[in-house]
Specification:
This protein is α/β, with parallel strands linked by helices. It is built from twelve helices and seven strands.
Amino acid sequence: MRIIKNSGNERVINELRKSLSSDSALDIVSPAFSIFAYAELREVLEKLARCRIVLPGEVVGELSLLGSVADRSFRNQLQSKWLAKQCLQWLEKKAEVRYVPATLPQSTLISSNTESPANQFIAGNCPFTTEGLGVTPGNQFSLIQASESTDESVLLSSWFSNLWNSLQPISDEKNKLYATLKELSEHKQPALVYFQILHRLFSDLGEQLDGLAVIGDIGRQGLESLGIFCDRIGRIPRAAATSSTLAFLPLLIFFPFFCLVVLLAASGVPPEAKNAQSVVLTR
């Protein structure tokens, strides 16, 4: 056995690309399953003859289908929906998934072909994620080992065979992984984003959530923000503001009368009415 550093040119994904071909088979035991790891090996996985996958039988949402913090750049490409659909089609065509009723302490990747029942065995902290494959930085203290001979691979692959045979097969309709991928690939209503935002904002309040109280808090915060804004833009000396107001006061008083005269002049008002109006204005 040799140790894989899972960095540089010595990564798990490089080992899989070397050992897998068009007539190969791949066996996976992993506590996590990421669609971004599938995307990195998509061209190789599509050419496989078959694939057997063992996952923990817990909530599928804990399998990190959309990756971790390290996969933010992949999520920002906005291809998750398409990748979920492609991964589901590949699973239905080439793979079979079974579940163990407990957590998996480590991962195992076994590649084989028609010439050898097992030509590569990789075990350790190498789940089927971008971190496990070495695409994104992972835990530097992880231990990953790979077989160096066919005899080692065959001996260790017998462990997977015993595990696989002990697990019950399930139909596609009852497969939780398939159901979750199908949900990810379906079209979502735009309003769902709004509901998710509200849930994130108010989920911690629980039964204490009161609509009137929330509106009151929002209104109070808005008034406080408005007061701060007014204080910041209203730093002109009060004396200057008062003198400016007094300077414009005559204009504000006589402006309506001026508008009235203009309207009368523009309309066909008799000269007598105009004279009467001018007398009023003169007085």
